[in-house]
Amino acid sequence: MIKNSSIQTEVDASYLYAKLAANESDVAVANVFKQMSEIEAGHAIAFLEQLDSQRPVTLPGPSFRAKALNFIGKTFSYDYVLGILMDTEKVLANAVVNAKRSMQIPLTGTETNHVKILRTLLEQEKEVTGSSVAKFESRHRSVGGNALRAAVLGGNDGLVSNFSLVMGVAGASASQAGVALAGIAGLLAGALSMSLGEWISVKSSQELYENQMELEMDELENNPEGEKRELALIYMAKGIPEAQAKEMANEIMQDKTLAHQILIKEELGINPEELHGSAMEAAVYSFILFAIGAIIPLLPFLFLTGYTAIIVCVIASAFGLFLIGAAITLFTGKNIWYSGFRQVLFGLAAAAITFGIGKLIGVSIAG
After folding, report:
1. Hey, where are the domains in the chain?
2. Which three-class secondary structure state does DSSP give residue 335?
3. pTM above the 0.90 mark?
4. How far is CA 156 from CA 104, 193, 347, in A?
5. How far apart are the first and last CA of the chain?
6. For residue range 205-250, what is the model confidence (pLDDT) as tens digits?
């Protein structure tokens, strides 16, 4: 049975691929995005016809989620949109597979991976070049959705952990100053811990990958013919005809920097774009994102007292949790209300448990 959510998913994908095409400077890649937009629109039409073949096909407009992602693309970069589209490829693939099965249409195998469809279209372009393929490989593996997801989850960690902390201390003590001090300490300790962890993670990864990249460059300098054969084999493995694969390899080898980037991606699984970021910058962003979430439950205790502060803290934190849950739907495609209230439920449950434990500890100490 075709679901309206499946139709909306396809409409949204078509809309976003059209936006990617309109904002893409590389003509070959833009044409691929345009074709993907047409493919997704075709899927949506097929779904509607399956639901009711007697009515004229009228596709719904893009959802709020799709418009929000387009806004993010306009504001920051459409690479983020591409990253999120790749993250949701399984949702799109499952919708196509289920539709074809219900209509008894044979599966071709391409339905299961929209990234493969993109690559196939790109590789079949008459004006395709090795640099076009390399550009797409770089962008679809870029931080894209991962960067946005990290921002949302960083704020969530700060909010939930500090909300639970201040509620636990509020349950154990009636002292406003004590709760505020605990909240400030929790904010700083958590943010610093997250920041240091991010710095170590980025720095150690950079050092490891840089060493591997140097070794690959040595191979490229000392054995260019062997590396050129490897490039050709990489493209042949993607389904490109041998003659075209060799031609693309020859073109890429004219630029050793480009050849190096492709080889380290395909052989080592390293994306050089991810190594350009500063470990210190990542640490600062991690600190800020955690602190933004952590300050929400803390603020009421800086200006209010007693149960008034607790009630305002719960309301403010619940609102923040709902916004985070709603933001997560940018990646999952789930219903905003469902995701938002689920986040609120889990956050309130965690805070209630720590508040109860705090009460027990406070009574025990007082007794």
Report:
1. 4-140, 147-199+279-366, 208-275
2. coil
3. no
4. 44, 15, 9
5. 62
6. 777 777 766 776 776 777 777 777 877 887 777 777 888 888 888 8
